[in-house]
Amino acid sequence: MDALNNLALGFSVAFDPMNLLYVFIGVVVGTAIGVLPGLGPTATIALLLPVTLTLDPTAAVILLAGIYYGSMYGGTITSVLLRLPGEAASVVTTFDGYQMARQGRAGPALGISAIGSFVGGTVSVIGLVLLAPVLADAALAFGPPAFVALMVLGLFLVTSLGTGSTIKALCMAAVGLLLSAIGQDLVTGKPRFTFGQTSLFDGLDFVAVSMGLFGVGEILYNLEQTEKVQAFTSKIKNIWPSRKDLKDSSGAIARGSVLGFFIGILPGGGGVLSSLASYAMEKRRAKDPSRFGHGAIEGVAGPETANNASSTSGFIPLLVLGIPSNVVLALLFGALLVHGITPGPQMMTNHPEVFWGVIASMFIGNLMLLALNIPLVGFFVQMLRIRAGILVTFAVLVVMVGVFSISNDVFDMWVVLVFGIIGWIMKKTGFDPGPLVLAFVLGPILESSVRQSLLLSGGSFTIFVTDPISLTIFIALGAGVILGFVGRGRRRLVANKQEKVAAE
Amino acid sequence: MFTNRARSQWPRVIPIILLLVGVAAMIGAYQLSLGQLNQPGAGLWPFIVGAFLTLTAAVLFFVQDPSECEQWNRRALGIVAGLASLGLFIVLFQMIGFLIPAFLMLALWLKTFGEEPWRLAVPLAVAGAVVMHFLFVVALGVPFPKDIVVTLFSALGV
Amino acid sequence: MNKKIARTAGVFASVGIMSAAVVGCGNTAGAQSGAGYPSEKIRFIIPYAAGGPTDVTARALAPCLGKELGQSVVAENVAGGSGALGMQKLISSKADGYTVAIVSTGMTVLTPLVNGLDYSKEDITPIGVISHVPMNLVVGKDSPYKDAKAFIAAAKANPGKLNVGVSGASTPQAIELQRLEEQYGVDITVVPFDGSAGATTALLGGHADAAFINDAPEVSDRIEDGSFKALAVSSEERQKHLPDTPTLVELGYPDLTLAVTTYALAGPAGLPEEATSKLAGSLETCLKDSKTVEIIGERFVPEKFDDAETLKGILDEGATVYKTMLKK
């Protein structure tokens, strides 16, 4: 079989001792970077890219890819422990992960994430080997109108997150969309709401906004309520996921793997959507959806798995079509170009050792990450025993410096500070930052796809009906909304009854 | 703000602020030119979003449940002081580099929010500032603003 | 408790050491070596993020420049505002030859005009051209348009119906297509995508009729394997690897030659003569270095070195055209 021969070649490359070392360094640095709030994979790979120029191309890409998926593991840790999501996909993890940590179940949350990420990553690598060329072409069918439909779907999913009321979520989503409109207009190039600030031309940085709203906002809130900080750190129930935890999340992990794999292939912005979709799916399937947002383990397992699966399958458009679907993959694209290798249809034939070597290294890398992360869970959980004041102080400083390193701009530090204040006030007034931050991510893709669609169709909205994918998604969405209303009405009745009982 | 009446009413301020932001966004977007559907202008999308925000904020004003909100207390003033110190950190960071502002910020926060004694706060702050300097500047090569401490040391030939 | 603090510190320290092991020491300051320029390390600003074409070109050049000048040339990405942040950083640094940048016509001339920024080409000292990257007008392999003539005829017959993807709004190539419409009455709809990759995706998926994108290796690969067809190139002369593809000039649009990304080396305004000539000399030598040229792209590097004067001419022409275009 061809795939097997190729894979054998890949493994012979990946098992080269030097390459093994680079996989290892990659995943270790990735994990470490993911743990440092503010310093995400984008900043790190950008910083390390020049160094890899001295390596041979396979080693360079193996190393950088290792950092990328390693940081996906690492990013979970801060989301769970400190509610500091360093990238869009882990925003979803904060909902139940952080709640689990507050209930003393940080260990199981981190453990199940590591296991889920491993499964998701591995499933995705297998899918990559077997299905890459077929799927890459299929993904191209997703044009601007299909993306509009996907983003609208994403926004609907956003409002189903968290525990607050729907109207509050909608309101915050509107704020997020508005904030994402800041910066240069994609189509006309006009600066919008930039108030003459050059730093605002590219818009607000996601990491700065999310670190401010979630992390700093949460820290400020906790500082205001001293007693809670103390209570939070004292109890750590168990470090490993129990058998029940594993059983509860196995379905979520299986579904997350498949969902993440397919969403990740779409050119442009799979990551957030995959974790969002997985969360929404788990919440919908659950017998008691009200547990979500209060520490449901499936709400951590599913999205984390989907996130990792999609970050691996994101390599399909890069390696097969030469299309980087996110910023990190764009950096890897550049790294390959510098080495004289053009990612794209000819890469498989011209540089099979790089292509299959990188894929095989991902197998090994995921295994290493699992081996690395399981013992580390215990270690990171111990971090919660550090006195809150010390932990929080250092976290704030690392966040500040981390966001500076995104584009070496002091402006981003002010952004963190301002959004920290907003996040604090939101927390006090019962608003969830999740919908805001996720709408902030989806907004620009939605806007540009809408405008591209309208340009393509000459201003006619029929394009959303004539495009088969967009039509399918919109129909499904419509059906979902109607069913959702019916379901919610029923659930509310039940909930009201329960509340009455509980009140007595 | 601390009178009784204001206490129960203050959360109502939030939808009003959001409403004003929405209206301001619509006005700003209108000035950016809305264009037409086959030739959408820069302002069309922000205008739609602004309208959406205005609408949701208006609904929120009437349905908001003030009991979800927490009251202000004296400790909030401490938080404001903490925020001011962070602002000062950013300003100083830009002027004199990382090490001194980082030390000051760490020491202050450890002492006030962490309620650690000085004999622990000061060494921790020194260690934290130095370790982070090495991590970000030396290891990762992040170009921090020129640091007066580093300049001083290199001038002394250390 | 102290033990735990020590442990946390340990995490931070070990992360530092691990990263240091990977990074090595890129920041060793150049030793003071005798008099004259350059006597210390040179900062090389790249106004775009790592990994993009600007970055690739600059990174390819930096080591050779360093070797020629006898000082390390430290590349630094200052991304943001379509190159504006990096440009402003360059302009605000001391004009002593220790800060240079890779610049393009877009960021020097177009960006300040579009965004109403208060810098212009007068704020930099041009040193020399690194490369000229032309644009290709390409269609998919199943496109009904066999050549440029057929495409343009179709565009004229159905005004506004043909969609051409470009890598972004307010890029030189988008403006060039606008000029095609305004000066020559070829009414096509320009659809800006997110970078060349976005435009390529749209063309491959059949969502756009054509794309007007950089002649980057990933595009020429596709032309070679037949999945794209090149209808026209934007350079003044035909491209060596596409001998059968006419230029826009040949097709009857003599002044549509601005859709070429020119990468150049520049310093802040008022660079001392010694520094300028030394940098220009090193650049000229480096553009003959086979390893450097291979990464930048052999066909993009001009055969004869384009000096500061030529570069100035290119920037002036761009400025004139863009000013009149954007006034409308």
TrEMBL record, chain A:
Task: Domain (DUF112): give its ranges.
Answer: 20-438
- UniProt keyword list: Membrane, Transmembrane, Transmembrane helix
Tell me the superkingdom of the source.
Answer: Bacteria
Quote the InterPro entries the UniProt record gives: DUF112_TM
Does this entry carry the keyword Signal? Answer: no
State the organism named in the record: Pseudarthrobacter enclensis
UniProt key word Transmembrane: yes
Please list every transmembrane segment annotated in the UniProt record, as residue ranges. Answer: 20-39, 109-131, 138-161, 167-187, 258-281, 318-342, 354-381, 388-407, 413-429, 436-456, 468-487
UniProt-recorded name of the protein: Tricarboxylic transport membrane protein
TrEMBL record, chain C:
Organism, scientific name: Pseudarthrobacter enclensis
Q: Which CDD domains match?
A: PBP2_Bug_TTT (cd07012)
Signal peptide: which range, if any?
1-20
Recite the UniProt keywords alphabetically: Receptor, Signal
Instruction: Please report the name of this protein according to its UniProt entry.
Output: Tripartite-type tricarboxylate transporter receptor subunit TctC
- Fetch the Pfam families from UniProt: TctC
Recorded hits in InterPro entries, A to Z, give:
BUG, Bug_dom1
Q: Which family does it belong to?
A: Belongs to the UPF0065 (bug) family.
Looking up SUPFAM superfamilies in the UniProt record yields:
Periplasmic binding protein-like II
Keyword rRNA-binding tagged = no
